[in-house]
Amino acid sequence: MAFAADRLYRQGKTGMDDPYKTLGVSKTATADEIRKAYRKLAKELHPDSNPGNAAAEERFKHVSQAFKLLSDPEKRAEYDAAARAGFHPGMGGMGGMGGGPGGKPFNFRQSRHQGRGGFEDIFSDLFTDFGGQGGGGRQRQAPRKGADVRQTVTVDFMQAAQGGKHRVSLPGGRTLDVAVPSGASDGQVLRLRGQGEASAMGGEPGDALIEIKVAEHKFFSRAGDDVRLELPISLKEAALGAKVRVPTIDGPVDVRVPPGSSTGTLLRLRGKGFAGSKGKRGDQLVRLMVALPSSDEALKAFLEKWSPPDGHDPRKGLHS
User: pLDDT at residue 227 above 80?
Assistant: First the structure.
């Protein structure tokens, strides 16, 4: 049974050109130069960028085929060796496929026992991936998906809490407006389907993976879905109680400070935290901090005459 490349040779329609010329690189091009040339052409010729353009689609297939051969070091070396030997396995039409010294056709039907690396392996593998079955009867492989790209975006604390649009620059110069969900957390990764690199095989493009970094806030902090805040209050507010204005991620609210509050007293504002994974919001924990004025002669005079009630020991819990 003739193998795929031999069959195509006899039919005179391989549909492929010299891979180096197809990618526009020299025969001494490095792997990185080949990869860069392919990415540039794939971006220009991808069917998504050229809807209805049959010529661009056909050239895209040729570019993908050429990249598949030249990106495989083993296949590229065997291809180059064949060319140096005077054969022209090159990827052109009937005249370029299989032309040996003196213009004699080259027989691609070489037995498997000669080992991996014969022309049969090169072209059978190549044509198996790009259409139909190879000489060994292998099924056509599904086109390989393009590579994913990764990027990190830093958002401020309030944007992470409330959500919103954020512009992101991707490798290659493209920009996207990313929808940051409300309740986004530091280290969370957003997957944008189809926004990665084009496929070398004509398959689906890869995805863009956007990692979120949340900047610190000047007075809010986060613990899970809860928001924490240290709230300074006066000695009078702590001793007598008071209604005070407290900032939250939804805007300021009025909160009642209980009489006799001490530094470290925690007040819980239910539902004023971040949105959780199940839709329920966390709370805001307000830690009261008694702040004394740096200079208050009246307060100083009062305290010099004041004594705590009998039995009161603020460090009682620290006694061994």
Answer: yes
